[in-house]
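Chain A, query sequence.
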Amino acid sequence: MNRTIKFRGKRLDNGEWVYGDLEYNRAKNIARIHTYDEDGEYLIQHSVDPATVGQFTGLLDKNGKEIYEGDILMLGSSDAGICEVKWNESQLAFCIRFYYERNLGTRPLGAWARDGKNIAILGNIHDNPELLNEKLYEKL
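Chain A, predicted structure.
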């Protein structure tokens, strides 16, 4: 089984999201995403804001959208919880951190996917930080 490893980041020149392979220079804090066409041929690299870089989790939401680190998810219905996808170094796994109602702390994202829970991407922490606002959550 092949595992898809790819990243996304917001371009510095126009703020649009770009998806592909990550090149990161830690010493200079410079990130680039290399993009490819449908046949796997290299197209171009884009400089991206390192703060926006997130890795693909390998999982899809209920609508078939790829789930990335930094995405804001709704699990089940609004009473199940709104959470953020984060990498957890101690668990070596993508985890979800809950924000409201149920104080479940941090759990591996895969556990929710395996349990057959409905997962829907609401947005992400870079474009939609207001989704983590408690007052908005109460309206869902």
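Residues 76 and 102 are 13 Å apart (CA to CA). The longest helix spans residues 109-114.
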